[in-house]
Structure formats: structure tokens, C-alpha cells
Here is the input.
Amino acid sequence: MSEPAKSNKNRRVFIIVFILFVALFAYISYDMASRTTAPWNKPKQLNRALPGATPDSDSLKLDSLLKEVK
Here is the structure.
């Protein structure tokens, strides 16, 4: 095999492997993103998974983290 033909074949193999790698990485990224919920959407996720499991808002208007410690 001559040098230019071998170089051309190596380049083609590299491009194919690179495209497959990028496509696989994009698919994995999309799959992870679709299965993950952003931190600010966590209450919405629970409400979608189990409708009626949690109230939409704090019915007592209290924040449990701000409770005074005696």
C-alpha cells in the first residue's frame, strides 16, 4: 500500500471513530439529562411521580429550617 492511501485510510478510520464517540457521548448526556431533575424542580418531580403526595405549597406558611431551638 502506498503512503498516501494508507494515510487516507487511517484518517477515515479516525473520523469514523471520532463521530461514533461523539454520538455515543451525546446520547449518554441526553439520557442522563432526561432522567435527572434540576434542584429547583425537585418538588415538581415528586408531585408528578405521586400526585397528591405533597401539598403544592406550605399550608402552614412555616419554614421548618427557621424554627427556634429551645
User: Anything to note?
Assistant: Residues 3-49 form one domain. The mean pLDDT is 77. The chain has two helices and no strands. Helices lie at 3-35, 42-49.
